[in-house]
Amino acid sequence: MQPEMEIVHLLRAVAVELGLHSARFAQRNGMHPTDVRALIALMDARRAGEEMSAGRLGAGLGLNSAGTTALLDRLERAGHVRRVRGGSDRRKVVVEVTDDAVDLGTSFFGPLIERSAELLRGYDDHQRAAVRDFLDGVRQAAAEGTHTPPPGTSQHEP
């Protein structure tokens, strides 16, 4: 097997394991997998200092307006999110993840995150930059739906 394909298959295996880990969290906490994806998006927005509207969240999750409303109602009832007035535009309603939801996620995902950070500390700056570039490139390709092989290459198994 080509070394590149070994890494691609390993990345696929990692994606499957992360999906299963996320599903265990969802099941343990009475959530739908989309609920977990929404909480991750909201935590990412919080970490970046960005406001997240319901429409932007729904678009990022591939949900229509009714689906987004149902999702937010469910998460709000569970105490995981709250709807608040926007900081920059008080007419706008934004969605925020609650501290309790962050704590819940940290208690479950924290050990995996710390183990991942520990592994990365074993790499030098150049190696970490290469890993970052590779993962960002794969993320961009998946987000853009660019799943067709470049000209002159063969299609590999999924």
Secondary-structure content class: mainly alpha
Order of strands, widest sheet: 1-2
Average pLDDT taken over every residue: 91
Q: Could you give the distance between the termini?
A: 14 Å
Specify Rg, calculated over alpha carbons.
Answer: 18 Å
Instruction: Please bin the fraction of helical residues.
Output: 55-70%
The gross shape turns out to be: globular
Relevant terms:
158 residues; mainly alpha; two-stranded antiparallel ribbon; 2 strands
Task: Outline the structure in words.
This protein has six helices and two strands. A two-stranded antiparallel ribbon has the order 1-2. Helix 2 crosses helix 3 and helix 3 crosses helix 4. The mean pLDDT is 91.
Short characterization:
By secondary structure, the chain is mainly alpha-helical. Helices cover 67% and strands 6% of the residues.
SSE map:
Layout: H1 3-28, H2 33-48, H3 54-61, H4 65-77, E1 81-85, E2 93-97, H5 99-121, H6 125-144
Antiparallel strand pairs: 1-2
